[in-house]
Amino acid sequence: MFDISKLKFDEKGLIPAVVVDSGSKKVLTVAYMNEESLRISM
Q1: Taking CA atoms, which of 18, 19, 31, 37 is between 20 and 30 Å from 25?
Q2: Which residues, 6 or more positions from 1, have their beta carbon under 8 angstroms from its beta carbon?
Q3: Measuring CA to CA, which residue among 41, 32, 39 is closest to residue 13?
Q4: 38-42: long-range contacts at Cβ-Cβ below 8 A with a sequence spacing of 24 or more?
Q5: What is the pTM of this model?
Q6: Domain-by-domain residue ranges, the chain?
Q7: What is the rounded CA–CA span in Å between residue 13 and residue 9?
Q8: What is the CA radius of gyration of the chain?
Q9: In the 3-class helix/strand/coil scheme, how is the chain assigned residue by residue?
């Protein structure tokens, strides 16, 4: 696990999130998450 407080969110409170297929390693989507959505997804 990592410490979310060490991440650098932008001025809108967002951070890039990249979803990658574990088998093919292809990028499925690139989106932005706020701190709350990141905590929920962990």
Answers
A1: 37
A2: 42
A3: 32
A4: 38/4, 38/7, 39/4, 42/1
A5: 0.71
A6: 4-41
A7: 5
A8: 12
A9: CCCHHHCCCCCCCEEEEEEECCCCCCEEEEEEEEHHHHHHHC
Residues 1-42 pLDDT 10s: 778 889 999 999 999 999 999 999 999 999 999 999 999 988
Query: How many angstroms separate the CA atoms of 30 and 6, rounded?
Result: 21
Residue 13: left (phi > 0), alpha (psi -120 to 50), or beta?
A: left
Residue type, 21: D
Structure-block tokens of residue 17: 């999130």
Encoding tokens for residue 9? 């969110």
